[in-house]
Write the structure tokens for this entry.
Amino acid sequence: MDSLLAFSSFLVVIFLAISLQILFFSPISPDILEIPSSSKTFINGFTSNNYLQRANKLGEGFLDRPEDVVVDKMGILYTATRDGWIKRRHKNGTWESWKYIGRDSLLGLEVSSAGHIIVCDTEEGLLKVSEDGVSILASHVNGEKIRFADDVVEASDGNVYFSSASTKFGLHNWYLDVLEAKPHGLLLEYNPLSNHTSVLVDNLAFANGVALSANQDYLVVCETWKYRCLKYWLKGENKGQTEIFVENLPGAPDNIKLAPDGSFWIALIELSTRGQNFVHKSRTTKHLLATFPKLINWVNGAYYKAMVVNVGTNGKIIKGFDDSIGKVMSFVTSALEYENHLYLGSLNSDFIGMLPLTTSTT
Ligand SMILES: *[C@@H]1O[C@H](CO)[C@@H](O)[C@H](O)[C@H]1NC(C)=O
Ligand SMILES: *[C@@H]1O[C@H](CO)[C@@H](O)[C@H](O)[C@H]1NC(C)=O
């Protein structure tokens, strides 16, 4: 009897210790997150088609998790890889390690009208990369260091628009921002003439992809864990105002890119493994996961599948492609349409996917 009592006391002490550990060391103060029910299936009559399994692999083995893809006027393709390089692929198919930056924190890229590359660095802000080398365009906004620069687009007037996914969490613990489910993201504008950066929109839910409409009268910025993208008007009577562009997406939006026909391609990631949405509805579970980050691998669904959707200017999904089991690609983070192909970046691949947009996929 005594030994049973001692053992029970021991269990109680262990339980209290773990609870205290969780409460004191949890890095988050979480809110409940409702994942839209439509996020489990394609909407507007689309079903899983596994077309992404037909992607060809460009630069296989040479590219360590290329998150974004851009193509310049000469048709040279650029990407930033986790080993700290800006790598590029010439028209003749040859890959080149072009510029070394040396950090694993490089995400979205843009080709500027002047011909250099602008790249988001989650550690340093916005970088300019050219034949002459690397320099910092923007590192601070309102006196604070720019954290988690994520995606970038340049307007024809030279202004650069970019997102700061989270002012609280960094690239390596991005999932904590999802667990906390409080909006720490920003949409920023960099003016190259004044070398000044300003905040256009704050309180965004993990501000991720940024794109400009074809006639540059609005920006679209995607809020990952709200499964939606917003429109921010740059011109016209609604200038400076924000409205919903597309919501209830069938996955959490990552990068967004303008397509040649004026529509948009959005890469969607899976935030939670099947059946584990309950995690996002329980503060206790969130604290537990945040305190023992290894558990996050058990709920984060990004590594299990891939999906991209094409959305019209009216905010309606036109078509979508997926790899429902991550057979060829998973964690696809960007989709660039160029010369009738989709180029797919991923944070879980050692290549860029290239999918022909033939009649069988459209
Ligand atoms: C491909 O083009 C690049 C850039 O012009 C050049 O440096 C490279 O030698 C070419 N490779 C081949 C195999 O022709
Ligand atoms: C522009 O501002 C950044 C800081 O945000 C600074 O590092 C950079 O040197 C400035 N560039 C010029 C040309 O003044």
User: Anything to note?
Assistant: The chain has a mean pLDDT of 92. DSSP finds four helices and 26 strands in the chain. Residues 90, 92, 94 surround 2-acetamido-2-deoxy-beta-D-glucopyranose (ligand 1) (CB under 6 Å).
